[in-house]
């Protein structure tokens, strides 16, 4: 695997942006099926969960 010396801030920003996009899609799908409402709070909550899971899996 590539072991680059990149700026960790770039990776952190990428993690936030990609997690937010993925979470937005997940919450939209759940709201389409009638499980939850599509609100900024729900998207933010799922984003934090996705970020935490990604962080744990990457550092494992």
From TrEMBL:
The identity of this protein, by name, is DUF8107 domain-containing protein
Q: Does the keyword Membrane apply?
A: yes
Which parts pass through the membrane?
12-35, 41-59
Annotated source species? Halospeciosus flavus
Q: Which UniProt keywords apply?
A: Membrane, Transmembrane, Transmembrane helix
UniProt xrefs under InterPro entries: DUF8107 (IPR058420)
Domain DUF8107 positions: 4-58
